[in-house]
Amino acid sequence: MRKLIVSGILTLIVLSGCSSDASITTDDKVTGLVNDYLGALETKDISAMVKYTDDLRFPDKVEQKKQYSNIEEEITDTKIIEIKKVNETEFEVTVEMVFDGNLNELTFPIQKQEKDWRIIVGQDF
After folding, report:
1. How far apart are CA 62 and CA 43, in angstroms?
2. Band of the pLDDT at 4, cuts 50, 70, 90?
3. Where are the beta strands (DSSP E) in 8-115?
4. pLDDT tier at 23 (50, 70, 90 boundaries)?
5. Are 78 and 21 in contact (CB under 8 A)?
6. Could you tell me the domains of the chain?
7. Which of 71, 111, 77 is nearest to 93 (CA)?
8. Which residues, in sequence order, are CB contacts of 26 under 8 Å at separation 6+?
9. How confident is the model at residue 73 (pLDDT cuts 50, 70, 90)?
10. pLDDT for 114-125, tens place per residue?
């Protein structure tokens, strides 16, 4: 009987550990994506910026990375103001950030593309 109880407890521990990824909600994934992107902006991590976005101004990721390499603005103090769910495959995020000392508030769509979420940028240019 004792072995059965111990076995049951171990099974529950293993199952709860396996389900932790499944318990991450879409909202959490999108929030994590935005936080990762904002961190990439502040540290000028070009590879991460390209990874997290789909920039409508550039025909492919190679050109996007090339152009991002020329970014000279100093981006600091980034934070999420609001994330709204539009539908099952789209969110909208409003962020605040300081560009070269000037406070800006920007809104971006976030779309599910195949299996990953992407922040859509470049639509205002």
Report:
1. 20
2. very low
3. 53-55, 75-87, 90-99, 102-113
4. low
5. no
6. 25-121 (3.10.450.50)
7. 111
8. 85
9. confident
10. 889 999 998 764
User: CB of 110 within 8 A of CB of 118?
Assistant: yes
Taking the CA atoms of residue 84, residue 78, residue 51 and residue 109 in that order, the dihedral angle to the nearest 10 degrees is 30
Q: Could you give the CA distance from residue 44 to residue 88 in angstroms, rounded to a whole number?
A: 31
Maximum Cα–Cα distance across the chain = 69
On the 0-12 / 13-18 / 19+ scale of CB atoms within 10 A, 92 is middle
Distance CA 112, CA 118 (A): 6
Query: Cα separation of 117 and 63, whole Å?
Result: 20
- What token pair was written down for 23? 């318990």
DSSP 72: -
Q: Taking the alpha carbons of 98, 36, 40, 92 in that order, is the dihedral positive or negative?
A: negative
What pTM did the predictor assign?
A: 0.77
Mean pLDDT of the region 73-101 = 93
Q: Residue 91 pLDDT > 60, yes or no? A: yes
